Amino acid sequence: MERPSGWLEGYPVEVAGGDLYGDAAQPVASCWKAVAEGLAAISDGGPSAVQDVAARHAADLGLAFRVTGDEDERAWPLTAMPLIVGAAEWAQVERGLIQRATLLERLAADIYGPQRLVRDGHLPAAVVAGSPFFVRKILGHGPRRGHFIHVYSVDLARGARGQWRVLQDRVRLASGVGYALENRLAMSRTAGNLLVDNHARRLAEFFARMRDGMAASCERDLPRIALLTPGRFNQTYAEQAHLARYLGLPLVEGRDLSVIDNRLYVGTIAGPKRVDALWRWINTTSLDPLSFDARSQIGVANLFEAWASGGVEMANWPGTEVLESPAFAAFMPRLCKVMLGEDPILPNIATWWCGQAAESATVADRLDELALLPAFGMPVEGLPGRQPVAGTDLSADERKDLLEALRRRPMDYCGQEIVHLSTTPAIIDGQIVPRPFTVRAFVARAADGSWTVMPGGFARLSSSTAMPTSLMGAGDLSADVWVVDERPAGHIAAPRQVEEPPISRGGGILASQAADNLYWFGRYNERAETVVRIVRTLLGSSMEGDNFIEAQAGGVLPELAHLLVHFGAIDQATGRMGAAFVSAKALTETRLPGGVAALMRQRMQVGMSLRERFARDFWRIVSRPMPSIDASRPQSMLSSARWLTEHFSALAGLVSENMVRSAAWRFLQIGQRIERAQAICQVAGKLGDGEGDALGVLLDLCDSQIIYRSRYLTGPMTNPVRDLVLLDPDNPRALQYQVAQIVSHLAALPSLRDDNIPEPPLRAARALMGDLQASLATDMTPHRLQEICGQLNELSDEISTRYFLQFDREEAERRTRLL
């Protein structure tokens, strides 16, 4: 067999455990050759160069993941070399996946219905009732259309002779389906036309059919389907946000939702809006604290009553996770024969449930040949976690303890054969080397209830030859899976005839929590920019004159330091130090709430909950780390401050040019305008009564030097400066302009009233606007500006009360401290 040249020329095709490339038939091997040569041409260098390109595209797409126990996300480890599977080989996998999904659907219907399998002795009762994921309360409550499973995923292993087997069924969450999509998007950018040239099947049709299937289950025209997330600290939150954005689904948390008259509603700025279906990404026991786990803080009260009575559809149906347990895997070959009258096309790895005496004895006797794992997916005595542990990896004491635990409670354990994974070419440290892999494949229901299989999936390349797991760990890689046809016409079908939807405008529904996050994103961003502007002025002044602020008594530098103290960027002691030290602390402060680093961290935290709403370019800029700050080099710090100013300007430009003028954009703007209005009041209160230098600095901070010079032929004078930065309705950096914008945005938001009387936030904003329009520059004393700050605080409270979910007292007090 002819083998590809170039990057794959020295690749060890004869790998002991089998290799995806080494085992490939000639037509598929030709695809490997074409892809390797194409990537080499794109990179214009070695494998490391194209790997860098793929990593950059993955970062631009916002791909990230979180290892369990980590607080921060990690960059998504995408390898530029895809897994290539021929259409003939994949066809067998596809048939097996549909058979497996059909079997799991029938098992779920029996477990929560007649339970004939247990009654007839085909399945031990303990395998069902012993699982912590079996939900007795759901017995007798089936889905209206008879579909317990809408989306099914499965981890597959490929053996030495090219046979595919099931490692683990996943019916609770289809985690990885979003990463399969994002891997393909990143590879499309990296590989250019290589996908089309090699006849790789597209993924878009799968996602369209999956969404249609969820919509069809609602039995209502234009149903609203929401993706229920546990929140931004979940390990797969980035994936959930990408999926919600791609499929056009609202991304909601439990606190966004409420049940009214056995129907589910999402709280929005326009009042409650009905939700017809939930694609849940949380455990069944966490769904409803009144019906299941009372400790759950991510569920929805009375949700059980809503779905049990048909008020909301669920994908997948609650309780289906009982099918995921390794104990079930021990009986799947038999159950396939009983339920379908067929042998499994995709057998699972050999599994022994120790709840049966003979199987328990077999596992104990063959411990050195097998792996041990919890029977029901929960940690048990003698095993450190939920993942398989090879018997040969146990110490003598660990082995003794485990055998004793197995003797006491054998039903808690399963034994499994140790899987030797096939390998695939991967780019590691600039070389093409074999790496063991697993593939997570996905199956979903189409609108007619039939199964559709994703032509590809999400591949995980292990960093070692250890036991395969389902989690991405440090050092692991992901890869796009290409299913390629030998002939380009082999997979081309007529495009689906999709009914044209009715015309719709705007940005869709805006949940109250999302509006809250947008509002605070705008505030944190604007506050950080204000502090940076002050720091930039401080640094510029310090390099021209005195090096210590306290030596400038009566000058403008102490006033700027006092402003930084007032904003919470530095403490009082720091405010008496040198300008360079003050600036460095203000930029890097994380302990105090007003430091730039702290504010940008807070902005990032609320921004994480808005991923599905922000364009990728916007999110890429938001995610950039702060530049390094060196207090010993004022010029370098000044450059960093200028970089930050450009950073804020870039975000402002993207908001101005790219965001639809929807309610989401308005809340982002309202937060920014309120924060800017307060900052203008505070800065003008400190500097507006000064002379010369202070008034010049005020003009600089309000970006109004040029317009002042064009209007007045004299240097800065008190009342002209006050008028320009406080009362000029045409100056986009003036106080009155900010309030006018707030009024405009509030007036455009939906009202809950039927009598056309303005709601409290709009009335408060208009009252403040009227006061400013009737004011003169001489009225804008520091005392009056302090009063306006108070009015802006009251306006913020009115907005929060009307539009946002109400926080607990601790959260409310924390945010108040930032004002």
From TrEMBL:
Residues 82-461 form the Circularly permuted ATP-grasp type domain. It comes from the Bacteria. Residues 510-804 form the DUF403 domain. Pfam families: Alpha-E, CP_ATPgrasp_2. Signal peptide: none annotated. InterPro entries: ATP-dep_Glu-Cys_Ligase-2, CP_ATPgrasp_2, DUF403. This is Uncharacterized protein. It comes from Novosphingobium malaysiense.
